[in-house]
Specification:
This protein is of the alpha/beta class. It has one domain: Glycerol-3-phosphate (1)-acyltransferase. Helix content is about 40%, strand content about 15%. The protein has eight helices and seven strands. The chain has a seven-stranded mixed β-sheet, sandwiched between helices. Helix 1 packs parallel to helix 5 and helix 7 crosses helix 8. The longest helix is centred in the N-terminal third of the chain and has 30 residues. The mean pLDDT is about 90.
Length: about 240
């Protein structure tokens, strides 16, 4: 009974905070539109949101490591493993300015999708070649404007603790645009959001670990697989 009551409160608070985030982001976007075309100030509202959501969930113990590996004056191709939707919540703890590449269905979710639209994240229609080309064109434009782009190169959430095979796009883009790869390891989120139930029943430890960036200036286009394998190796070895 206690767990059920706690779970109701957690969901209510989390949804309420996300609704509040939407209204604040919308207000900031409207008022500062001429001065914040990249939506950096709107994006920064997610920083207090992630702190509040994680602090108010008694089942989550979240640790962040390696923030000193981030140079906030640089844009990165951020490469991370992917275990659950909770990864999105934790990524904001890096305090980085970034754009997600996210499947179109997420943009259709009430409140969450509205926030993603306001922040100008990048929409991907899976299976459409024209959409994939558009995604990489948008990602390159953001990188050139000094905003990082986040990739989950496994392509989907992993079903276990192992790291899936990486797709090549993020690494080809990083080489082409000559921006560093920033590997970020996320652990413990696979069970952070209950599957098949609305109840939180297990206390979990989550870790977001920012690894040292990988310089891409010495790579040529044909080296993308070497860069991909190096990045995957670094994530696997931590």
């Amino acid at each position: 009974m206690k767990q059920a009551a706690q779970s109701v409160v957690i969901w209510f608070v989390g949804i309420s905070l996300t609704i509040l985030l939407f209204f604040i982001m919308a207000l900031v976007s409207i008022l500062l539109f001429p001065f914040d075309r990249k939506r950096k100030i709107a994006h920064a509202q997610c920083f207090w949101w992630t702190d509040a959501v994680t602090a108010l969930n008694p089942y989550w113990d979240v640790k962040v490591e390696g923030l000193d590996n981030i140079d906030h004056s640089k844009a990165y191709v951020v490469v991370s493993n992917h275990q659950s939707l909770a990864d999105i919540i934790l990524m904001y703890k890096t305090r980085m300015q970034f754009k997600w590449i996210a499947k179109e269905s997420l943009f259709k979710i009430p409140i969450l999708g509205w926030n993603m639209r306001l922040a100008k994240h990048i929409r991907l229609r899976r299976g459409e070649f024209s959409s994939i080309k558009k995604v990489y064109r948008e990602a390159a434009e953001w990188l050139r404007s000094g905003v990082s782009v986040v990739f989950f190169p496994e392509g989907t959430r992993s079903n276990d603790l192992s790291l899936g095979e990486f797709q090549n796009g993020a690494f080809k883009l990083a080489i082409k645009e000559k921006v560093p790869i920033l590997p970020i390891l996320i652990q413990g989120t696979r069970d952070a959001i209950p599957k098949g139930s609305w109840r939180f029943t297990t206390k979990i430890s989550c870790l977001i670990k920012v690894l040292p960036p990988i310089d891409t200036t010495r790579y040529i286009s044909a080296d993308y697989s070497r860069l991909r394998d190096l990045t995957r190796e670094q994530l696997c070895s931590n």
